[in-house]
């Protein structure tokens, strides 16, 4: 399938220009169909019983894990289904046996979901070190080299900033972590949907991402763990499915994803998530990435020409994706987002993007406007966005 042909799979009204993909993406018909098929034709619980429907459902649920593992090059590890990225990160934060004096290294660009779970660990005597990039969001790898000391237990970094669009040097950071014996958690919420991400190639220990940002249903996410760490964290939730044996004295936890998926999971959502991964693969992640780069290049070039507009993040396409934040002098970001919707039905995000510390660091008390692109956006839509911003900027 060609990328232009996929637009027909997204049943959003044609007059809407959806550019809020960093928040959540649209969902294509084949993903909806896969979930409907489960509910209509083989709905049953999974891993619990012998009748024919539960056998089909269990197999499809297992297949869903395999497809999602393949999608992120994670076959050697454990792929746990979660509700979202936030839950996946919290599972790691709550599951490791923190000791006073442990160090966690993270950055100022993190989404609150990859910051608050670590900040809370200060209560346990854990030291939190925050690394700062330049104002364009680009880090000096030396800063990680200095901060990741022998007592560093974990480093948590977003692969792509959901505000600045910058791609972080995760492979280099992974190498430092390996050398110093620190776990490395990558928040892939904004990378996995947009370019080919291979967990083994990166060399991380944990990779967290959300299904709903990659054409899957809401309420789906993933915690991938390297095979050597997949029993290191204790499960957040215990109960049906998580054990091999139970007596009144205690229990033996099972291995693999079941250890972490207590209770009946989101079966149709997981099947939908796997279908979303297959859908993206059928288009090709490299094709999707190139398409988004073309759009991003046009948007950056267009915005750079508009008086009173400031782009926050790199102004060229190197090391960044199509998450483009900007402000217009003297006009509140919420007003800009409202006007774009009112005038041309362009849907973008405005505000702090769940990154209040980053906004403080950048001196952006009202936040930014953020256009975040995906495979179904077109050059015509980008031109319309630029024209509309020009018109708004003339009000200054
Ligand atoms: C970089 C990053 N991390 C984490 C999250 C949290 O994702 P979720 O709300 O799906 O848990 C987001 C959501 O926007 C994000 O952009």
CATH level-four homologous superfamily name of the largest domain = Type I PLP-dependent aspartate aminotransferase-like (Major domain)
Ligands, ions, cofactors: pyridoxal-5'-phosphate
CATH T-level topology of the largest domain = Aspartate Aminotransferase, domain 2
Portion in helices: 25-40%
Which series of helices and strands comes N to C? EHHEHEHEHEHEHEEEEHHEEHEEHEH
Q: What fraction strand?
A: 15-25%
Across the major sheet, the strand order is: 2-8-7-6-5-3-4
Characteristics:
four-stranded antiparallel beta sheet; Aspartate Aminotransferase, domain 2; 396 residues; 12 helices; single chain; 36% helix; globular; Aspartate Aminotransferase, domain 1; binds pyridoxal-5'-phosphate; alpha/beta; seven-stranded mixed beta sheet
Structure description:
This protein has two domains: 3-27 and 284-393, Alpha-Beta Complex (Aspartate Aminotransferase, domain 1), CATH 3.90.1150.10; 29-282, Type I PLP-dependent aspartate aminotransferase-like (Major domain) (Aspartate Aminotransferase, domain 2), CATH 3.40.640. Strands 2-8-7-6-5-3-4 form a seven-stranded mixed beta sheet, sandwiched between helices. A four-stranded antiparallel beta sheet has the order 11-12-15-14, covered by helices on one side. A hairpin with a 4-residue loop joins strand 9 (243-246) and strand 10. The protein has helices at 29-41, 52-71, 85-95, 116-119, 141-147, 170-180, 199-202, 267-283, 285-304, 333-344, 356-362, 379-393, and strands at residues 17-18, 78-82, 103-107, 127-131, 152-158, 183-187, 206-210, 221-225, 243-246, 251-253, 309-312, 323-328, 346-347, 349-351, 368-372. It has 396 residues and is α/β, with parallel strands linked by helices. It has twelve helices and 15 strands. The model has no long low-confidence stretch (mean pLDDT 97).
């Amino acid at each position: 399938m060609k990328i232009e042909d996929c637009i027909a799979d997204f049943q959003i009204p044609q007059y809407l220009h959806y550019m809020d993909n960093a928040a959540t993406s649209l969902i294509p018909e084949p993903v909806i169909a896969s979930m409907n098929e489960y509910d209509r034709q083989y709905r049953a619980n999974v891993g619990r019983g012998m009748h024919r429907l539960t056998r089909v459902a269990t197999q499809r649920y297992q297949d869903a894990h395999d497809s999602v593992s393949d999608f992120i090059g994670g076959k050697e590890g454990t792929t746990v289904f979660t509700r979202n990225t936030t839950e996946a990160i919290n599972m790691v934060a709550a599951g490791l046996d923190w000791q006073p004096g442990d160090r966690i290294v993270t950055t100022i660009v993190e989404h609150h979901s990859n910051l608050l779970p670590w900040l809370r660990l200060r209560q346990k005597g854990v030291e939190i070190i925050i690394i700062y990039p330049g104002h364009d969001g680009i880090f000096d790898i030396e800063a990680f080299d200095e901060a990741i000391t022998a007592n560093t237990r974990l480093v948590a970094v977003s692969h792509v900033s959901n505000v600045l669009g910058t791609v972080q040097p995760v492979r280099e950071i992974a190498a430092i972590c390996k050398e110093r014996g620190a776990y490395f958690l990558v928040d892939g919420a904004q990378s996995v949907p947009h370019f080919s991400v291979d967990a083994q190639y990166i060399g991380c220990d944990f990779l967290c991402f959300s299904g709903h940002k990659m054409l899957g249903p809401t309420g789906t996410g993933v915690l991938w763990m390297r095979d050597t760490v997949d029993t290191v964290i204790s499960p957040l939730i215990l109960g049906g499915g998580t054990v091999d044996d139970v007596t009144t004295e205690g229990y033996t936890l099972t291995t693999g994803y079941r250890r972490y998926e207590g209770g009946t999971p989101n079966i149709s959502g997981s099947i939908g998530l796997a279908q979303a991964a297959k859908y993206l693969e059928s288009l090709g992640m490299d094709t999707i990435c190139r398409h988004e780069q073309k759009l991003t290049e046009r948007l950056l070039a267009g915005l750079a020409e508009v008086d009173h507009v400031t782009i926050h993040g790199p102004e060229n396409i190197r090391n960044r994706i199509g998450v483009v934040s900007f402000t217009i002098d003297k006009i509140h970001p919420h007003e800009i987002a409202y006007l774009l919707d009112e005038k041309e039905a362009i849907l973008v995000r405005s505000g702090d993007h769940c990154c209040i510390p980053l906004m403080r660091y950048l001196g952006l008390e009202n936040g930014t406007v953020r256009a975040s692109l995906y495979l179904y956006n077109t050059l015509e839509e980008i031109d319309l966005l630029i024209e509309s911003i020009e018109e708004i900027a003339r009000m200054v």
